[in-house]
Amino acid sequence: MDQLSGHLHPTLASDVELERMSTTDGISIDLPSQHQSGPDTPTVTSDLGDLDTAYLRDEQVGEELEPAASSSIDSSAPKKPTWLPYTLRRIPQCLILTFSLLLELAVLIAHVISLRNSGLVEDNGSRAIVVGSKFVPTLLAVAFGLLATILLDDVKRTEPFSRMASPSGATGKESLTWVAGAWWTIPSPVGKGNLPLFCATLIFMLSPLAMSPLSSTLFVTQTVVLNNKTSFHQLDLDSLVPIQPIPQATTYFRTISNILQNVSTTAWISDNYFVLPFWPGSPSNIPLSPILSDVAQTWSARTTVFSIDLECDPMQPRWENLPILNQTKSTNISVTVASESGCSVDLKLGNSSVYRTGGGNIWSSVDDISSILEYFFAFDGVEIHGCSENEIFISWTEGVPPFNNFSVGGQACQYTYYIGNSSTTVTMGQGQSTIAINETEYHLSKMPLAATIANTAAIDKVFFNLNWTLHLDSFQRSNSITQRQSNTGPANLLSALYRISQARLLADESVIESLRRIRKRFFAELFHSAFELEAVENAVSIPGTVTTSSRRVVAVSAVANALEVVLLIQSILIATVLYTTRPSKRPLGLTEDPSSVVGVARLISHDPSVVETFAKCPNTATDNLDQSPATAHFILIEDKIEALEISALDSRSCQHRPPNPSRSKLSIGRPAEKQKKATLFRTWLLGLLFVLLSLTLATIANLYQRSQTRGLYETIFVYNIGVSIGGENLGTVNPASIFTTLVAVIIGLWWGTYDTTLRKIQPYLALAQSPVPGHRGIAVSYKSSYLLWAAYRAARRSHWILLLVSTGAFLVQILTITMSSLWNRELGDMTTFIRIPKVLELRNVPMVFEVLSNPWGWHPADYRGQILQSLFTNRSTSWMYGATIQSTLHGPDPPWSMDGWSFVLNSLTDIASQSIQDTGNSTELAALSVNVTIESPAIRGRLECSPYNFLHDQTRWLTEWDLTNDTNWNTTVNPNDPKVGFELGTLDDSWVQPRGFYLGEGHLGDPWTSFFVNKQRLQCCENKTSEFIGVASIGYWSPNWPPNSSRSYPQISYAWPNNFTIKWIHGRPTERILEAERPSIEAVKRLIWVEPPQMMALNCQPMIETANTQVTLDYDSKRVLSYKILDIPRAYEQAWDSPWIEDNANLSAPGSHARNINVSVSHGVLFMTALLGAADVGNFGGNSAFKYNTDGMEDTSDQMFNFRQSGLNVDYMTYAMLSSVDFDHQQLLDAAILERTAQRTFSIMYQHFVNNELSLATGGYAYQRFGEKFSDSFRQRVPGSKREAKPANTTNSEYVMLQVSRPVEILNISKPAAWICLAILAYLIVTCGTLAIVSRQYTRMVPKLIDSIADTAVLVAGSVKLLELAKLKSTREIKKDSHVRAKLGWFNDTKGQKRWGVELVPQ
Questions:
Q1: What is the tens place of the pLDDT at every residue in 18-38?
Q2: How far apart, in whole angstroms, are the C-alpha atoms of residue 957 and residue 959?
Q3: Separation of alpha carbons 217 and 558, rounded Å
Q4: DSSP secondary structure code for residue 678 in this structure
Q5: N-terminal to C-terminal alpha carbon distance within the chain
């Protein structure tokens, strides 16, 4: 290559010396050999005289280029190290690649752990969980995106240098004038050197458009299921066989409760199976309760299962010797009920003229049915033929057979007991425990239950036993004992299930299902009772699984899969960039950063032809260079740009256009011809960004305000998109989070373009404003400075607008992070208000009953018994059963009730269900229901109790007997021990045997109470095993009778509320002590205590209170969820003010004792009378004659509302109290515990009574129709008087507001994130407005966006002093030299022409 040399003009040297630049006349510029210097080489002169400050004059500067004698390149000089941008150096690039791989690995590990463990961690709501799941993923994505941005910028700004540094060089279009496209422009990977730029562009595009939006939804909180292997305990069946059925009173109670009220008695019994119990944890107790755990979980194990199959054939009647209706001649009637299988039962009914039946049911084994029918139902004969089945059920209605008012039918059934093994799951939660077995496994493994495992013959005998009548009484009586409905054995329960209606029972085609249900339930309850008595030492271990549900942070599979693919692609691309940008493969030919003005000047200063080429382009017009022939190449060697094909450049060089220096100051900085303005600083684009920022701020502020008040529940906010591939569910994605993140990304990309542009032109803006030193102008560049580093550098140089914009660029990254975590989907409620009319109110009008008084010549108070009887008729809704079930078996509160309070109900049928959102997928909403809140009067019952202070004096309530006294005791029969016994009660002049004890001072004239519910004496129940007399307990609630009272139950008192006594006696009684025989008096057994028992007794006054409340309940089940008392509870006097008031009306006939009368009674009186007498329900008036003071013992055959079993004789209330202390008999001897348990029991009993037989149409015992009053026809016992009803505890308004809360998914806005977003957006809006204001000034100062090397080269090509300085000093040296000052403006070149560019100025 030929060499050219040049010498500086002496005047130039003089000027340079004034500026402290060490230059000599011998400095040479090496150019290619074809570029020769001639006499026509132009002399460039600077002239900045038209500016306000001092500038160089044309005559001060001259430059002459002459051929060099020799090459200027000294091969012996040490070679400078190659310069690379930071992100293209090996270690930083390896760190970026490592960061990408670590992100890939982190997402993969989190995804795998989430799949394996059903989530990553339990969401306890802590800040660490929120930050880790919401902020960290997006933070890492934003950090990676920033690295991708720097990487792309570095690849872009080094691309033209890498092209020129190639051995063949590059055309001007490919290098000097090459401008990188926008970020959305993907270059072609095909072509020499294009692959790094292609890969870097893809890396950048994937970061904000894929990683950031996806990272915002990578982790979500969901309710997930966790399976944990564990060891369960289970009863060892081998040590229990053969299982013996031991029915207790509780066995019948639980069976009746399940059949009539459909309540669960234990979790181990389903409709068809009984599962051998298993349980985790300590084997100390066998969990047999209906609720095994309050924690939502599932137990799974393979265990033993029992069942019974019952197959039945219907039996139809066939009559013989049918009589003719109304005939006078009698006929012997017989009927045969037969099944299609051939089983038949012949019933000989007897003489048609006298036979009439009250209806009945019999359910018995085939072997016993004949004897039962003949004995209990007075049939003349029964014959059975062809029955292969083992049990028969027969039912008939009331009437005279065989006419239309009489029907008969039955079922012939075959039962089989089975045992098998099955996988079993017990699911707990929401106040219940349910069991499910794998029926396929069970049916494959089941076999008939062998007698060696369970005594099946004894099970049959117990089931068909006649003891069912002790626990169930139909109350179905007619005017003749011979016409009463009769039931035997389990048929009592079946009859109660059909509400004592034979017609309903016979008409039911699915009666077989009722038979199966009763048979299966009692079979399971027998096993239940048997296992209750077993010790836990028999437990063995079996493997199983405990499954729990938890709110956990999970990785969304669809998002995780997408991120894994994206990160893998990016890692491959980064590795490609790392490989292809090594200096050996992509040399740059640079030893220092060329991004500054002086850096470009240094590159072109060594080749005069290159300088001349750009010097011929005045006014920054470089577009012509793009038209250079393809043969015109530039080459970059060691910081020197050399031009090849000089002739081609000369022919295509810029044409000279004379300047127009006469332009006004507003035109300074513009060329004469019309220039293209900087596109990104166009006002309308800034205005559009301003609008976008403002709309985003206003939208977030509005949504935040709505989120805090009514919630964001509309479909557009909560809709989820389910993702599945190949039928596999990969989770759901909420578009709201992705959308807001995309908005932030768009704002960030948009803001980044302004930040990038301003960082590029900031040095030129500083140079255009005034002469500045190198560190603020020609030697500075912001191209490799980002975010806060750029802001810091701008602040140091007082570049305030750049400081605002770069700070905004940093805040935009925070905006992306916070907007990605702005939303949080939660379950919430949407509330509406509905005005509805009141339907019911608290009862202030007593209930009125029409009864038949003294129908059989009994005691005049018998009509009370008829009324009380009606309270217990419907066993399927019995309040006594319901309350006891709730207390002992964890049964539910009645509807509209909670904590003893009963709330006046209203009609909610007008509340229409409506769909208010579409979440796009099944969510937890399916398990939720609509809640309603209403202000309502409430009523409750409670007690005010105090213990008696004389209980320590046993003589006040206990009688001591000398059992060796043969005058009183049958010493011949009685056992020798004990010699002394004790009996409950005290003797007085009027009593033959002790029955109760006096209250007060203990005198004859004081009030008194009994030990039983009435004046009968106790005779049950001892706890005797072999010869040992064990401990037993007795507990009954009894009324306190007035002094010298001769009244009998239920005529307790005229003054209400009347106190009663709660007793608990614990000791060692025996039933084997007989009285001495007396003439005409049958000797009876007496309940004698072998030692003085312990007793705790409370004197209690019932209180009925009311209060105004606000209650929230479940719309579907009417179950109360919560309530709030709005005022102080007050006594409700209307509950007591009408104690059995008669209206003398409807006399049947003159002189007749039987009459129909109207009786009004307040519900409090009705409740207390029924409650205290339920344990002896057989003695309610109307059922049987009353027993008087001299009558005998308690009726142990009546066990409907009491528990009589070995060691226990209690009413339902006391049994509920005992259940609440886990049947620890000793605890109830504590007065405080006795009172606490009594309070709870009484409140539960009362709330069930209030809700019994309740109707919106007629009200109930404690409620009435709104506005109900006394009927004018109702007459009081006192002629001419009118009883005024007191106002009920309701407001005058006939309407009430109903607040309806529907469960919805709500998109909740994080308060901190919202405020951060609003603050950042406000800052960006202010900065955007400021930038829009100054952008017009910036456009005048720098008329063209300086993007390419050529753009800067044109500005310095005519600047002789700057070019000389660039050759002499490095950029670092110039930056440190505060004496070097430069200015961007108009100056005269060496030809005396005006030129726009950068040139040095004197100090």
A1: 333 333 333 333 333 333 333
A2: 7
A3: 10
A4: P
A5: 40
